[in-house]
Amino acid sequence: MITIRDYQERDATRVGCLIAVTYSEFNLAFASLEQLAAFLGPFRHAESTDPSHRKAIARVIRSEMVFVAEDESTIVGVLRGRKDRLASLFVRRDYHRRGIGRQLVERFEEECRQRGSTVIRVASTVYAVLFYLAMGYKRSTSLRSGWSFEGRGLPVQPMRKALRTIDHPT
Ligand SMILES: CC(C)(COP(=O)(O)OP(=O)(O)OC[C@H]1O[C@@H](n2cnc3c(N)ncnc32)[C@H](O)[C@@H]1OP(=O)(O)O)[C@@H](O)C(=O)NCCC(=O)NCCS
Q: Rounded to 10 degrees, what is the CA torsion of 54, 52, 152, 78?
């Protein structure tokens, strides 16, 4: 059974590996080895046991909101963001199309609503555009050239979604 829960610092190494593998495979396949290292930033050391690498990974995962999807004790998805911006979302390849991305986004949107947000923005990867459209997001501009850590020239699709506001009792 899949559970969505708050991320904890002790999840950092497992989340780092999930991000490194999924990001490389689905979003960075066009990159040379040198570019790949630049786009991955600290996640290029996801397998390392060096404490300085682990610390750097834990630092970049930290965000106002971070949720993980867990199957028993295996972390299979992660979403990071703040109250008006979804920063990153990754689901492990062998768990795709089982509604995990949807559950993570719904949990995040609920939290954003509670915090008073009316709009969420995301710079979607090209791969994820159909997913976000299915989640009710709309393209807000044409495709743009984005960046990731020291890497430049990552194609991204800016998207946005207006949130339903919560009716507060008067
Ligand atoms: C994008 C991603 C997070 C989606 O996660 P997921 O758990 O597979 O998504 P869901 O199963 O919740 O999909 C919900 C709906 O989105 C749509 N969708 C999801 N993936 C899709 C795909 N590859 N192609 C077309 N539609 C897709 C479908 O309508 C799907 O509903 P359905 O399966 O009932 O048809 C996942 O594919 C991923 O990690 N991709 C690589 C990393 C990435 O690009 N992340 C985005 C960073 S901004």
A: 10
3-state SS, residue 67:
strand
Asked if residue 96 lies in contact with residue 133, where contact means CB atoms within 8 angstroms, the answer is: no
- CATH numeric code, 2-162: 3.40.630.30
Question: Model confidence over 138-149: pLDDT tens digits?
Answer: 999 999 999 999
Pocket test for ligand 1, best of 131, 160, 161 (most atoms within 8 A of CB): 131
CA of 69 to the centre of ligand 1 (A): 14
pLDDT in tens, 93-126: 999 999 999 999 999 999 999 999 999 999 999 9
H helical segments located in the chain = 12-27, 33-40, 51-61, 100-114, 129-134
C-alpha 48 chain-centroid distance: 21
